[in-house]
Amino acid sequence: MNKKIIVIGSSNTDLVVQSERLPKAGETIIGTSFFQNQGGKGANQAVAASRLGGDVTFVANVGNDAFGRNAITSYQEAGIDVNYIQLVGVPTGMAMINVDANAENCIVVVPGANNTLSKKNIDAIEKQLDENSIVLLQLEVPIQTVEYAILEAKNNGSTVILNPAPAQSIKEEVLTKVDIITPNETELELLTKIKVIDESTMLKAVNILHAKGIDTVIVTLGSKGCFVSTSTIKEYFSAPKVEAVDTTGAGDVFNGALTAHLSKGQSFEDTIQFALKAASKSVTKAGAQESIPLLSEL
Ligand code: RIB
Question: Which of 27, 97, 147, 152 could link 16 by a cystine bridge, Cβ 3.0 to 4.6 Å?
Answer without folding.
Answer: 97
